[in-house]
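From: lab user (bench 3)
To: helpdesk
Subject: output format question, protein + NAP

Hello, I'm new to running complex predictions and I'm not sure whether the block I got back is the full result or only part of it. Here's what I submitted:
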Amino acid sequence: MTPTSLAVLGTGLLGQGVARRLLACGLSVAVYNRSPAKAEALVPLGALLCLTPREAIEASELAILCLADAAAIRQTIFSDPLSRFLSGKSLCQMGTIGPDESRDLARLASSRGARYLESPILGNGKDAEEGRAQVMIGAESEDHDRWCRLLGLLGRCFWIGPVGKAAALKLALNQLIAAETAAFALSLGFVRRSGVPVELFLEILRGSSLYCPTFDKKLARMRDRNFTAPTFSLRLLLKDIDLFLPEADRLGVRSDALKGARRIVREAAESGRMDLDYSALIDVIDPLSPPGSPDAGARI
Ligand SMILES: NC(=O)c1ccc[n+]([C@@H]2O[C@H](COP(=O)([O-])OP(=O)(O)OC[C@H]3O[C@@H](n4cnc5c(N)ncnc54)[C@H](OP(=O)(O)O)[C@@H]3O)[C@@H](O)[C@H]2O)c1
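Helpdesk reply: Thanks, we reran it on our side. This is the complete output you should expect:
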């Protein structure tokens, strides 16, 4: 085993990008995914395909966890009551989970003789693949110092503090995804239904301090109502809102605005759009008229 042998557990949208980047940097990467097809796709790039989490962790010094949520992490690596294979390994949790969940996982890892750090990232799988994500590290200094250069292959790294702090920061950033996307979809729908040229609205918006780059990133999807091949799903956005809200209550910050966005995200997710791109929330905010009505098919 070389010092740079890694494992990526969870090769969904984020894990694919992470594994591809590390492989492109010439590192040895073992990959595991619950449904193996997504991990198999990485084999032609040089990944070692593992059919169990244990196999992947045993083949590596640092295992990067790109799993959906804390429950998935527990199921994947902590379901064996002893998990002896974790002893001496480092686990780097990269998904978006709650600060308390992350601290609990750190305790679990420690009880199995493993080191634990969190490194949630801002950016999508493609950003990670291209080394331009932002990586927020929550860790003890020795784990930060040991792994920050390697994590820096994915993008710019920031050491936020001990475990839990980076998880909290990531939630603060992700609630903006819901808030900004819902607000933009609302204005788009309002403009469209008012008969104001959308290009004029956009031109004025782009020249103002109200503009966010995410608006143009999601514009084509919202215009074409094309939410397939997501970069980030409504399912996971709803999960992040549900992590944020209780934490906000605990901290004593008012989250009424986000609660409104949550109703929209939930309605969109529960109407068959769960695994579509989160920009699909526009379908709830500004539904297109049913076929046959005078406004049918009207697009932005
Ligand atoms: N996509 C992004 O842009 C992005 C950016 C930053 C952070 N994140 C965060 O990173 C994490 C992964 O996101 P993603 O977009 O890659 O999600 P995804 O494409 O839906 O992938 C989820 C991964 O978790 C696995 N998984 C889910 N439930 C599981 C369970 N019970 N047991 C074992 N494995 C399970 C899935 O395995 P299967 O394939 O077998 O279902 C898959 O590997 C999430 O916490 C997300 O919030 C995502």
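A quick orientation on your result: Residues 10-15, 33-35, 38, 66-69, 72, 75-76, 95-96, 121, 124-125, 231-233, 236 surround NAP (CB under 6 Å). Let us know if anything else is unclear.
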